[in-house]
Design brief:
The complex is a heterodimer of chains A (about 300) and B (about 400).
Chain A: H1 2-7, H2 10-40, H3 60-67, H4 69-100, H5 107-114, H6 116-119, H7 122-132, H8 139-146, H9 160-188, H10 192-200, H11 205-233, H12 237-242, H13 254-264, H14 268-296
Helix pairs in contact in A: 2-14, 3-14, 4-9, 4-11, 7-9, 9-11, 11-14, 13-14
Chain B: H1 2-27, E1 30-36, H2 41-57, E2 61-67, H3 70-83, E3 89-93, H4 97-103, H5 120-125, E4 127-128, E5 131-132, E6 135-141, E7 143-147, H6 148-153, H7 163-173, E8 179-182, H8 189-201, H9 212-226, H10 239-247, E9 251-256, H11 261-267, E10 273-276, E11 286-295, H12 301-311, H13 314-324, H14 331-336, H15 344-353, E12 356-357, H16 365-381, H17 386-402
Parallel strand pairs in B: 1-2, 1-3, 8-9, 11-12
Antiparallel strand pairs in B: 3-11, 4-5, 6-11, 7-9, 7-10
Helix pairs in contact in B: 2-13, 8-9, 8-16, 9-16, 16-17
The chains are: A mainly alpha (about 300), B alpha/beta (about 400).
């Protein structure tokens, strides 16, 4: 009896509260990841999928994917995609946040409207951009040619280089509101007094921005960039719907290529190896995030 | 007062019926589930109607059909196979049959069905190592559709029969806003399906693309795109998209299958079109498509077989084929199909079927198919020359076959 009572002392009860979430994470997140890691060290194809003993393959899958041209393209693509999206959407998001922070009359409703892209289902966005970038029916080519900027329609989605550009545009469009809203929130936490005393001291707009706004926003900016990296790096649906990884594998990302290997070509182990490469990169970035948030505390 | 009485009467009757219905359901039958992937509403209605008549014809089994989108179908089957959560019966794309059979998820039904009157290709697609793992549901093949009014307007009287004639005709038909020819060239199985007729027409097989003949086929499609007679957008068009472009008058000729006919008649009743054999290089060629039934091993095999026996009867097959615009895989039934004058155009697909071959069957077909579709996509987008694309594809194919 005493023991039970002792167990339910304040600090131990905490474990009980944590338990449901912990069990949930273990079963629905931990278990699949573990299975996936095991799968990547085996040789599972359609011939061995249902057999009870699956041949051990060691590092073979990892060696083979790094020799695979399409995998290397997808890895570079994912990095190029993530970095370009991150830079552009961060800069535009930051600019918009500063703009709306001036609190003019219609700032609030317009800022609300700008959240739209974030709320639209990604499949819808992807289809919409597929139409925008269409060669003969796309509005972008229509605008460009009526402005006299192009003579012949650009084949956006059927040319390797421009297809990547189109996908990045679509993702930036989705990412801007996310950046804007987080930075806006960050801006409101900066005490007004600082700006007031700075202006009394005769600091200019540029000076206050670099000496007050940026340093105080640092933690917010770190979170925005790291979270943005994670969201962007694991992109799947947007690319899958817009280009399906084409033309000629030029827009394949790690996620879409992993899907293709597993579910279109039945190379389950290779697919999971690709997924694990994605996981490892995200874990590294995620650990930076954890460290950054710890520093904040 | 009266109203309330009436309402009460209605209610109690409804309840009584409900109870009765409930009672019937309790005594009812073993559930059989069937997965299929047709997104076409007409196809779905036909299947459900056929299942309905089966369910009311007996009370041992109750079949329910579940629609799984095509893009998800392979994934669901793979996941189902590893988690042992599969339906009892599937209707699947014939080139994938061998892959799933090699997973061991389908029951051996050798000797349980008489497939001797069936076309060879479809039966081969359901066979692996001389064991029958399924029954062909129905088949189709690709042919060339052409817009008659556009032919007349361009003063073309002869239907193209060779590649040279096709190139010439397509060029003549290409105007501002209209491209001469279109066929689905996606970088996936659907695209491969539409490309292999050209490849096979040169005499090359799916496994020797890096030959003089294989390179000729790749060069042919490259020329079509480069000359503007075929839109590069085809690499993003599904067969449904191609059909929509054709009925909207944006495309003068297209390669497509007979399953589009019911929709085309529905949506563009005034369009004046006809069908002819796909023009040839050295020999006429086409590709067999369609689905097979397969019984899942370890499910309710007995029930699945009972339904399958019912569904492969002549009456059922004829109904399904007519509703769906398919050709029966049973040559005896196929020869009696499309007797009415209105359906004469389907006969042209039956003619084309004479020249059609099946893909594979090979468990690793998806990998071969991927190599082929990459090759023609490279050529059509201009990212590789035909010879280089062919060599690259051949290297992949050889490594697959060497395993």
């Amino acid at each position: 009896m005493k023991r039970i009572k002792q167990f339910f002392r304040y600090d131990n009860v905490g474990w009980l509260y944590v338990f449901p979430a912990f069990a949930y994470m273990l079963y629905f997140v931990g278990y699949p990841i573990l299975q996936n890691i095991i799968l990547s060290f085996q040789d599972v194809t359609m011939r061995t999928l249902t057999s009870p003993d699956k041949p051990f393959a060691g590092l073979q899958n990892y060696i083979e994917i790094f020799q695979d041209k399409v995998f290397r393209t997808s890895l570079t693509n994912t990095l190029v995609f993530t970095v370009s999206c991150l830079v552009v959407q961060f800069l535009i998001g930051f600019a918009l946040a500063l703009f709306f922070n001036r609190n003019f009359k219609i700032a609030k409703p317009v800022r609300g409207l700008l959240m739209m892209p974030w709320m639209i289902p990604i499949t819808v966005t992807a289809l919409m951009f597929k139409f925008i970038f269409g060669t003969d029916v796309g509005i972008l080519n229509y605008i460009l040619s009526s402005l006299g900027l192009i003579k012949e329609n650009i084949e956006w989605l059927t040319t390797p280089g421009t297809a990547m550009f189109a996908v990045i545009c679509a993702n930036v469009w989705i990412g801007i509101p996310f950046n804007m809203i987080l930075i806006s929130t960050g801006l409101t936490t900066i005490p007004k007094e600082l700006y007031e005393s700075a202006s009394i001291d005769g600091a200019g707009k540029v000076q206050t921005f670099f000496k007050i706004t940026l340093p105080l926003l640092r933690p917010t900016i770190e979170s925005v960039l790291i979270l943005g990296f994670i969201y962007t790096f694991k992109v799947f649906d947007l690319v899958y719907v817009m280009t399906g990884g084409g033309p000629v594998n030029s827009t394949h990302m790690l996620s879409t290529y992993s899907y293709k290997l597993s579910f279109e070509m039945f190379k389950y182990s290779k697919g999971s190896a690709v997924a694990n490469v994605l996981l490892i990169i995200l874990l590294i970035v995620g650990s930076f995030y954890l460290r950054a948030t710890k520093e904040e505390d | 007062m009266k109203l309330r009485k009436a309402a009460a009467a209605v209610l109690s009757t409804a309840m009584a019926v409900g109870v009765l219905a409930g009672a019937v359901q309790v005594s009812a039958a073993e559930d059989i589930t069937l997965w299929y992937y047709w997104e076409n509403e007409g196809h779905q209605r036909a299947l459900n109607e056929m299942i309905g008549t089966y369910n009311s014809s007996q009370d041992v089994y109750a079949v329910t059909a579940k629609y799984v989108p095509f893009a998800d179908f392979k994934k669901q089957l793979s996941i189902g196979a590893s988690a042992s959560e599969l339906p009892d019966l599937v209707i699947l794309d014939s080139p994938d049959h061998a892959s799933y059979a090699s997973m061991g998820i389908f029951a051996d039904i050798t000797g349980k069905f008489d497939v001797s009157t069936y076309y060879e290709g479809p039966v081969a697609s359901a066979t692996l190592d001389d064991v029958l793992y399924g029954v062909p549901f129905g088949c189709n093949c690709l042919s060339l559709y052409y817009n008659r009014d556009m032919f007349d307007a361009a003063g073309i009287t002869e239907v193209p029969q060779t590649w040279d004639e096709l190139k010439e005709t397509a060029a003549k038909l290409t105007t501002d806003g209209v491209t001469g020819l279109a066929f689905c060239s996606l970088q996936n199985e659907e695209g491969t399906f539409n490309f292999v007729p050209w490849l096979w027409s040169t005499g090359a097989t799916s496994y020797d693309i890096n030959s003089e003949a294989g390179i000729r086929a790749l060069t042919f499609v490259k020329d079509l795109v480069d000359s503007g007679a075929m839109s590069k957008e085809c690499i993003n068009w599904t067969q449904g998209d191609v059909m929509n472009q054709f009925i909207s008058g944006n495309v003068a000729m297209m390669v497509n299958g007979p399953w589009q006919i019911p929709t085309m008649r529905d949506e563009a009743p005034d369009l004046n079109w006809d069908v002819t054999l796909i023009p040839k290089d050295t020999e006429f060629a086409s590709v067999i498509g369609g689905e097979n039934y397969a019984v899942v091993a370890g499910g309710n095999e007995e029930g699945a077989l009972d339904f399958l026996t019912y569904a492969t009867q002549k009456e059922q097959v004829t109904f399904m084929m007519t509703q769906m615009g398919y050709i029966s895989a049973d040559s005896e039934i196929a020869s009696e199909q499309f007797a009415s004058e209105e359906d004469a155009v389907y006969k042209k697909f039956v003619d084309q079927l004479e020249y059609a071959q099946a893909r594979g069957p090979l468990p690793e077909w998806p990998e071969v198919s991927d190599a082929i579709s990459l090759a023609f996509n490279e050529v059509m987008t201009g990212s590789a020359e035909p010879a280089d694309a062919a060599a690259e594809a051949q290297a992949t194919i050889d490594s697959v076959l060497a395993r």
